[in-house]
Amino acid sequence: MSPPVFRFAPSPNGRLHLGHAYSALLNDRMAKDAGGRFLLRIEDTDQTRSTPQFTEAIFTDLAWLGLEWERPVRIQSEHFAAYQANLERLWAMGVLYPCFCSRKQAAAAAQDAMDPDGQRLYGGACRAMSKAEAASRIAAGAIHGWRLDMKTCDDPAAAIWGDVMIAKPRVGSSYHIAVVTDDAAQGVTHVVRGLDMEPATPVHKLLQRLLGLPTPQYHHHRLLLDEEGRKLSKSSGSISIAALRDEGVTPDAIRRELGFP
Q: How many whole angstroms separate alpha carbon 93 and alpha carbon 105?
């Protein structure tokens, strides 16, 4: 029997903070306790925000914390062809449609309900477009994303996300399609991530079912909060591991604080 496989998959769009450290250390601990493997993956499909410098900083911070991972590291931006292949499979199955709406157009026709990302559910303006018309517009170079047609999928995720976008315009991918493709390619058996990612799990399980991919075991861990009760995040300026290192904080001190002595 193959050993279980865990992974930590940060985005290189800023410096890691203690919340990242907790998730990485927890995955490493659970992998060791289960006699499994610990992988690191760089999720950089958003090329407008990701940089090689932040990728190198991730390696530096995790190594400083005492973590070791298998090489080579999977870099998402090197695998857009794999994500595109799965999008084409879903298009052929009739469960995916291109969306040509601008943000303004989508907002104008949106439903009142909100998705977990805080966006109003898409109204489905492009859903009824014929495949022939859609293909013609794509061939003409029209900018578009790709949405799951939840009416054909008949899945509980529909009530949470509506026709969720799984490939963003000009990007060619999204977190959802990339992560399920990568987890299958890497043989990931256990996905351990923060509670803030729990709403995405129904979408991932749906994509796995549609694409015939294995479904890992999911565990959503607690989030680290700041003094105001907000989750630690790059966008809110949470202190980075690098800054703590520069202040003289030791890896052992961080591990003890996070419960990994």
A: 27
Contact (CB, 8 A) for 238 and 244:
no
Domains and their CATH numbers in the chain? 5-78+225-258 (3.40.50.620), 80-167 (3.90.800.10)
Distance CA 40, CA 222 (A): 20
**8 Å CB contact between 45 and 10:** no
Give, in degrees to the nearest 5, the angle at Cα 211 between 207 and 10. Answer: 50
SS3 content of the chain, % helix, strand, coil (to 5): 45, 15, 40
Token code pair at residue 22: 């907790």
CB 101 within 8 A of CB 89: no
Dihedral sign of CA atoms 114, 115, 118, 119 in order: negative
β-sheet bridge partners, residue 146: 98, 167
Read off the pLDDT of residues 28-53 as tens digits, 9 standing for 90 and up: 999 999 999 999 999 999 888 899 99
Structure tokens at 213: 């991919």
Q: Report percent pLDDT > 70 for the chain.
A: 100
